[in-house]
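[09:14] KT: can someone run the structure on this one? pasting the chain below
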Amino acid sequence: MRKRSDSTELIDTRKKFTAFMEHLWTHKVAACDTETTGLEFFRNDLLGFSFSTPDNRNVYIPILHFTGEKTLNPEYVLPELRKWFAQEDITTIWHNAKFDLLFLRAVGIEVCGTLHDTMLLHFMLDENGSHKLESLAIRHLPEASGWKDVIPEQLKLTARAKKVKMADLNYGHIPLTVLGEYAALDSKFTYLLYARFIDQISRNDEFLDLYSLEMDLLRVLFDKEYRGVVIDEPYLRELSGTLRTRIDDIEDEFYQAAGRMVNMNSPKQLIELFEDHDIPVLKRTASGAPCLDRGTLLRLADGHNVHLARLLLDHRRARKILSTYAESIPLKLDSGKRLHTTYRQASARSSRLSSANPNLQNIPRGPEIRKAFVPPSDEYVIVCIDFSQIELRLTAHMSQDPKMLKNYREGGDIHMMTAMGLTGKPASKVTKEERTNGKVTNFSVLYGAGPRTLVETAFAGYGVKWTEKQAKGYIDQFYKHYRGVRRWKTSLERKIRMYGYVDDCFGRRRRAPGIKDMSIEKWKRESMVRSLVNFTIQSPAATLLKRSIVRVNKLLREENAKTQMFLNVHDEIAFYLHQDEFSLLPEIVHEMQEWDFSIPILVDVDWSDKSWGDKRGLYD
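[09:31] RB: done, structure tokens below
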């Protein structure tokens, strides 16, 4: 067992609390943390607060516990903390701040002043490593060894003593002396990591600016997470019934086509069935077994007219929509039928935002699930603003390819232009199918797709059937047509191989030290190079979205608007636009389009008075 720390203090009497608050008021800087009964602020309870001040005073203040040990009355504690956190001249330091801010707002505490987040600080310094507090503390602070182990050990002991499952317990069942030390050290180590990381960040002005952006964004995302997204639960219940019926019908049709009953979720049984029906093997797994992934099934269904493959695709899609969304979303709603996702700023190495619980980034593009996302009342409509071809536009800016620049400056059709380059035809002679070929080539070659990947992407994403020879020809033609893009990529690749990292146009860095390690297989090193080239396109697009979110939030606050951002997915920001505030729409669009690039940045605007899934063009 870890030796008890002498630098922590349990504040379990009113006298101790009063003395500590006097101490806290003399400090304008503190690392802070909360302990809770779970992860959902709208369902779980706050157990207590920990603080670490610059003079190494590390305390835990319990307001709820389930062991019978003495805690403080929240009716006394919360008003005092509410006053301290309301100061505009304080600096508070957190690890994964949004989590704590959500629980604090739920009990009426608003955190003012300057925020810092050691998770985001570390993400700026090392996007490849773990950003968990435990990992960082153990790596950088020798005294942190074993500090986190005490919690699972204690939960096991408590579960054994109470003869219950560990899943039925939470931190409130851990002896208060144990939890108090653990919690106080949480804040202590957060403070020590902050001191180390902020010093490193401050040496690079661009890193510091990007970190400031992330902290501004954190405030906006926190507000969005707290408000949540309005969900039409009755619609999802109805959709679940429809999907179950559809799944049953697909299974019946599959069994009839197969000539026998088959478990459609069993790869072994499906492989045997396909072999019995002499269905060709187009791809094999690493172990040598026939592959039945989505891309292979699509090729079988459309390229080889295999009805069983089409039914299997339909079955998988319906089951995924049912289990991942239609059935699970209602279980995650609060009492007001709102869904609270968690936006992650330190997850994707490209610096793109992601989300979890649930992952709204992966919601199918079709209308079925999106129709469940509705306005909060008849006073609002849904407006979605999406950056138009943002990654292609940024490529034009960074590569300075003359043809791309000319196309975007003149408001041309980049997919038509690529099709003209691939076919050698004038625009008037390019067919709809050839324009689609141009579109597929643009989005695939942009990210370094080779012939085989291009063939798979073309078919799976667009239903376009190419041979590898055709795909190679399109790639070659793309780079002949856009010579500036080829030169730019070649120059980037050379620098990446030389330095082992790359900075995007805003100064955000992506590191891959393995690129220079000759003991690593060449194909893996080349994959790293492609990944870093892709980063220089994806990361600026992410930064534009983040800055737009912060800009638009500032506009809405200054206007004291009822309109709210409620969701962002990929390059799209979705709003609940109040019907009295349509005049704000041009200003919002302006904030998202006003950038200092060599080509215009444009957005597309859709809207609906029904749901996200019913959105249509603003002028349709």
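[09:33] KT: thanks! The chain is about 50% helix and 15% strand.
[09:34] RB: yep, looked fine to me
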